[in-house]
Every structure is written in structure tokens, then in C-alpha cells.
Amino acid sequence: MEWPWQKVKRLEEQVAQLQRIIVEQKAENERLRHLLEEAQRASKRQAAPFSRNNPKAQPQRPGRKAGRRYGRACRRPVPEVIDQTLEAVLPESCTCGGPILETGLETQFQTEIPPPQVERIAFRIHVGQCERCGRRVQGRHLRQTSNAVGAAASQLGPRAVAVATQLNKQMGLSYGKTASVLQELFGLPVSRGGLSQALERVAKKSEPTYQKLIQEIRSSPSVTPDETGWKVGGKLWWMWAFSTASVTVYSIQPGRGFKQAAAILGADYAGFLTRDGWIVYRFFVQAFHQSCLSHLLRRCREMIALAPPSATEFPRTVQGILQDALDLRDRYQAAKVSEVGLAIALGKLESRLDRALDKSYRLPANQRLANHLLRERQAIFTFLYCPGLDATNYRAEQAIRPMVVTRKVWGGNRTERGAQTQSILVSLLQTCRQQGRAAVPVLEQLLRSPNFEAIDLTAPDRSPPSISVSRR
User: Fold this and answer.
1) For 327, what's the count of Cα atoms within 13 Å in the CB-facing half-sphere?
2) 21, 72, 282, 420 — which has fewest CB within 10 A?
3) CB count, 10 Å around CB of 206?
4) Three-class SS of residue 230?
5) E strands present in 270-379
6) 167 with 181: CB under 8 angstroms?
7) Which are the contacts of 325, defined by CB distance < 8 A and separation ≥ 6?
8) Per-residue pLDDT tens for 217-271?
9) What pLDDT score was predicted for residue 6?
10) Residue 403 in contact with residue 239, Cβ under 8 Å?
11) pLDDT band for position 464 (50/70/90)?
């Protein structure tokens, strides 16, 4: 039996507890309202993607620092070859009107771009007929890109098409802006439709090389994939990127599932797969997986910023474990930890993570993170078991970034054929960039080839120099 005074005391405690909850909820509501308003204001700012929110009160002065903090001193080297020497003679008199006596001689060097000039070439094609079968045969010059004559006899040269390809697919210029660059800088008139058709021909010639890059990806011991949205004909498709240290393959496909990923990587890929938490990648059951720690750390930081202070213990614990894992990797690579020490520290990290996951959490966000980590448990510390393996999918993120910029500039592709052209050409251009290889000579070589032949972009660069015509 509960006495009246006991009931009053119990009710007073309940009221006090509810009042504390109300105060906490009001404070939490005000904090979230402030974050929402800040996010809405940031989304409407023109410079929102580059905003730092809270600038430093006393930022460092821009430019070089004085004294020892100056950094590495560099200057433009003197040209090894001098093409022209010009004399900068003294004026006849000083500004004051007095005579000038020459006392010395100084030298200045200037590296300049010569005025561009378009080469207009006519090929006199010798035509014959086989005396045995009667087939028509015509000659082909090394600099020709096509055997077309008649209405299609006037064409763009291989270097012009290669430069247009780089401007459009790597620099992100639209067809209209690419045509403007060719017209204003080189005096080469070309239409947007003509550029589109020319780039499609480049893609057809590059198809065997593209397939060879796909084989390089499938045989690579480690691959980093990623994907982002892409529009084709106004519909949502996906731009896939599969990257290694030396090769990148893009593929624009209508889906984001295992079928599309396996079309490039191969369903039986058995190497190391460093990827984000997208569920599709876990279907590569023969691969060794490494979950991107950067994504997990960013998720922890966002949860800490949005959750009430009483619910941040779990994401802070996970953040500390992952950061300690990265620090352990750095100390091992710096030879500050032995292999035995690495194994012992790794076991402690795994125990800490298992203890954190062996609990139930009231906050739904914490429980979702725990469930995700349980699914990814075997792929979190793979980079410590295999030193040298990347702990993040930064390589694919870097490959995706130029495509995101291109998507913001001109949206995507209008047709499936244009999407295939985009996939092939950006794969060649990005791989050339990774190889430190000039892309224009590679595209010229592909265009000049009479057959559809593959170029091994992973081999040493032994491409022939660009052909030039001496003018008399």
C-alpha cells in the first residue's frame, strides 16, 4: 500500500524528471534549428561549396614567408635552346635629356608561344585497280585519318581532333566552347555537330585500347571503385570509375547494381577491393575487401555534430578507434613499430571495436552505425593485415571529381552512343594523365592507324614524335 505522502513524493520526482527532459529537448531543438538555418543559408550562397563557415580570427598572411620559413626557392630555368636573340638597344638620351654611356650587358630569357597557324593539307590519293580481282585500291598517307573521298573529302586533322578531345573530355569544355577555342586561337572553323562526330570516330578507334584497359583492371591486384549519378537523355544513369595506381576505367551504365560493376571488374574478381559501404561491392565474394575509413570517419563527425551530447559516446569511440588504426599504420610505415608490435596493437584495436559493437543503442543513428560496422567488420582493418593497401578509396574519389565538374558544366550525354564515347575517351585521357604521358600524341596515333589496334598505355612511352611539315 502506498501512503499519500509517498505518492506525492513519487509524482514530484516524475514531474522534476519530465521538466529536465523538457529543458534538454528545448535546448536540442534550438541547436538543431540553428544547424538547419545555417545549412539553408549555405545552400543559397554562391560560394557555398568553398565556404569555410568560421574563418580564422588571425589568418596567416598569403605569399612566401620571411627567413627560414620561406620554403624551397625555385625559379624558371634558363632555356637550353635559344631560337632567337633580340637586341634591346639603349635609347638615344636619358629622360632628363642627357647623353647615355653604355656600361654593360645583361641577358633576359623569355619562353613564348609562337602564333598558331593552321596547316591546310591536300592529299593526292593514287587510285588503282587489282588486275586479278578487279577491286578498287587507293593509297594512304601516314598522316591521313580516313580513306573517305567525295563529299567527305574535307576533314579535320588528327592533331586538331586530339586537341578538341582533350578540351571537351578532360578540360570539361562544351562543344560550343571547344569550337570557340579552335576558332579564336587557331583560326580553325568547326561546328559543334562536326566536333561530336569527330569525337565519336576517335572513340571507335579507341575501343580496342579501352577493352585492353578493362583487362588491366581485372588483372590488377588492387582496385578502387566508385560511382556517381550521370544523366543520359535526361534520365538518371551512373558513371562508374575503377581506378588503380596506373589505370582508370570509366563506364556510364543505366544501373548501380552488381551487374553493372561486374561488367567492368568481372564477377570473379579476386584481388583487393578498396571501396565505400555501398552494398553492391560486398557481392564480390572472392575479393578481399577494405572499407573506406574516410567515409566512416566523416559519418562519425557528422553524428557528433548532430546528436545531443549524451548520445555522442559511441561515434566518438568509433572515431578514436579508426584514427588510432591510421596512426598505427603511419608508425609502422615509419619503422617505429615492429611486425610483432603491429600484430599486438591490431589485436587491441579489434577488441576495442568488438566491445563497442557488442551493445544495443537507444538512439537510432547510433544503432544504424553499429549495424553498418557489424556488416563491414571483416573489411575495416584489412589495410593493417596487408601493409601497403590503401585505407581509403581516395583514388576513385579523385577519378570521379573531374566527372562531377563536367556534369555541372554540361549535365551529361544526350544519347547512349554519346555516353559510350564519353566512357572510352575519359578513360584514355585519365590513364594517360596517371602515366605522365601526353594524351594528344596517343590520340593522333590512334587516328592515323588504318586498323583498329590497341595501344598498351601501361608500357613505356615510345610513341613517335608528332609529324611536322617544313615550310619553304
Assistant:
1) 8
2) 72
3) 24
4) strand
5) 272-275, 288-291
6) yes
7) 293, 349, 380, 381, 384, 391
8) 999 999 999 999 999 998 999 999 999 999 999 999 999 999 999 999 999 999 9
9) 82
10) yes
11) very low
pLDDT digits (tens, 9 = 90+) for 328-373: 999 999 999 999 999 999 999 999 999 999 988 888 889 999 999 9
Among residues 130, 133, 156, 128, which one has the least CA distance to residue 143? 156
Query: Residue 48: what pLDDT?
Result: 43
Q: Tell me how crowded residue 305 is: count the other CB atoms within 10 A of its CB.
A: 11
What's the grid cell of residue 153?
573529302
Identity (one letter) of the amino acid at 44? Answer: K
pLDDT at position 53 = 59
Distances (CA, A) of 143 to 203, 246, 387, 446, 455: 18, 30, 49, 11, 18
User: Which residues is 136 bridged to in the sheet?
Assistant: 129
Q: How far is CA 275 from the centre of its chain?
A: 15
What is the spatial distance between Cα 193 and Cα 215, in angstroms, rounded to a whole number? 33
The β-bridge partners of 128 are: 137
- Chain-centre distance of CA 169, in angstroms? 13
pLDDT at residue 60, as a whole number: 76
pTM comes to 0.79
* Structure-derived torsion over alpha carbons of residues 393, 399, 405, 408, reported in degrees to the nearest 10: -80
φ, ψ for residue 55, nearest 5 deg: -65, 160
Kindly state the cell numbers that stand for 302: 557528422
- CA distance linking residue 128 with residue 322, whole number of Å: 72
Strand-pair partners of 288:
272
Q: What is the CA radius of gyration of the chain?
A: 32
How many alpha carbons lie under 13 Å from residue 227 in its C-beta half-sphere? 24
C-alpha dihedral, 204 to 210 to 211 to 213, nearest 10°? 170
Q: Please give the C-alpha separations between residue 275 and each of 69, 137, 260, 428, in angstroms, as whole numbers.
A: 39, 53, 15, 22
